[in-house]
Amino acid sequence: MIATVAAAAAGLSVASGSTAFASAGTVAASTPVVTRAALDPSLVSGRGADVGFVEQEAENAATNGTIIGPGTAAYTLAAEASGRSAVSLTPGQYVEFTLPAAANAINVRYSIPDAPTGGGITAPLDVTVNGHRHKTMTLTSQFAWLYNEYPFSNDPNAGVLHPDWWATECTCVPAATTPTPVFPTPFRPNHFYDEQRLFLGRTYQAGATVRLTVPAGSDAATTTIDLMDSQLVAPPKFDLHAANVLLFGADPTGHRDSADAFDRAIAFAQRTHLKVYIPPGTYQVNRHIIVDNMTIEGAGSWYTIIKGHQVDLSPPAPDGSVHTGVGFYGQDASVGGSTNVHLSGFAIEGDVRERIDTDQVNGIGGALSNSTIDGLYIHHTKVGIWLDGPMTNLKITNNIIVDQIADGINFHTGVTNSIASNNFIRNTGDDGLAMWSEKVADANNTFDHNTVQTPVLANGIALYGGTDNTVSNNLIADPIREGSGIQVGSRFGAQAFAGHVWITNNTTVRAGTYELNWKIGLGAIWIYALEKSISADIEVAGDNFLDNTYNAIMLVSDFPVKDLYSITNVHFKDIKVDGTGTSVVSARTAGSASFENVQARNVGAVGVNNCGSFHFTPAGSEFSLTDLGGNTGGGTTGPWLAPWELPNTITCNDRPPVVPPPPPSPW
Ligand SMILES: [Ca+2]
Question: How many whole angstroms from 488 Cα to the centroid of ligand 1?
Answer without folding.
Answer: 28
